[in-house]
Amino acid sequence: xxxxxxxxxxxxxxxxIGANPSRLLNLYPEPTGxxxxxxxxxxxxxxxxxxxxLDGVLIQAMxxxxxxxxxxxxxxxxxxxxxxxxxxxxxxxxxxxxxxxxLNAVTACITGQYLVWNVNTSTLSxxxxxxxxxVAWVEYLAGRTIIGEVGTGKFAxxxxxxPSVFGGFNFATAEAREDETIRGLVVGNALYLMGSKTxxxxxxxxxxxxxxxxxxxVIDRGLKSFGLVCVVEGSIFAVGNDNVVYLSAGNQAQxxxxxxxxxxxxxxxxxxxxxxxxxxxxxxxxxFRDRPAWxxxxxxxxxxxxxxxxxxxxxxxxxxxxxxxxxxxxxGRVYRLEQSEFDAGEPHYREATSYVLxxxxxxxxxxxxxxxxxxxxxxxxxxxxxxxxxxxGRPIMRALPRVGDFDAQVVFRALGRHKDVVARVSMxxxxxxxxxxxxxxxx
Length: 443
Known about the structure:
Elements: E1 3-5, E2 23-25, E3 27-31, E4 40-44, E5 47-53, E6 61-65, E7 68-73, E8 76-81, E9 84-90, E10 97-102, E11 105-110, E12 113-118, E13 123-125, E14 135-141, E15 144-149, E16 154-159, E17 162-173, E18 181-187, E19 190-195, E20 199-204, E21 212-219, E22 229-232, E23 235-239, E24 245-249, E25 252-255, H1 259-267, E26 270-278, E27 281-288, E28 293-297, E29 302-306, E30 315-321, E31 324-329, E32 333-338, E33 342-343, E34 346-347, E35 350-353, E36 364-372, E37 381-387, E38 396-399, E39 409-413, E40 417-418, E41 422-428, E42 434-435, E43 437-442
């Protein structure tokens, strides 16, 4: 049977699903290199296993410091380890949240309040923030904690190695353009002040009131909202004020969205940007309240979608603890990412929707479609649906061959007459990669 490329990356645009229905849900493509049995594998993403259940909902920010993960929720500040969690502080219930560190201290802002947790003494303080009235964000650079003011371009910095002392003259204002700073973010040796229309870049430059200075560089691209940015591999991954996703390094911002990602941001409810690693891949994602997350693979420069039961992914923040990546959910739970047939206690669903097969020029009979997997697993079930990309017919179910069968084929027969056709393959059970090329036989 001839081999047909099945699907490459998610291209399904919510504005026009039928134009290009190809989609990867909880699967990502991994090239196999020249001479392989397939041009790429479709690998299942990791599932979520419960790590900690906190009191409340909506985890907003997380970071790891000295073997523990510190978590901010609306009104709460937690320290979380594999042994359990401790509530460190209760604050307000609305506003922005950010978290950083300064040597032996965890620094955080919760709803405008600045907090410092001393890891060595296990004590919490709420220092005066000097020239900054209400704190919107917190970062660390060149030995100093940097805090930004809500609704302005003003930011201030602490003494070196002491995040509790802010001198009255140790502040500056982003003022190259007339737009307020939404968030400051440190990448490498630079502080990016991300406004509603532009981004300024500042660098360490001295001491006291001259500790930071503008580079003079301005990126003519702003940030859509406070949570829609993260750092991945020394670059900024962010949703711009034009609903396009950018990957920025230095003073350059490269657009990486495809049309489907931009449409999802325009039509949906984007919540946060997060980054993590699994299976040797580095990922960054835009998560949504009302639809699956769109995930960018820095290794392949391709997009796929992360979901739970084909709906939104609950992830709102990520942090690495030891060798594990943890996910903070909008349900107040912390999860560990791991290879599993379950996802937050539910069967881990994976789905690939194909390119359009056929050209509408003439009728053909699709006698067989064969999907090849890496190995057989008795606990895995594969399902095929045939349709036009918008609607699909009755599902056909197949169990994978028995354990130990490598290069296992799953064959679907008598699939009807078509001028063009879209195939949707889904799988639950064992986390089995399958080939990105399928084989078809025409009648």
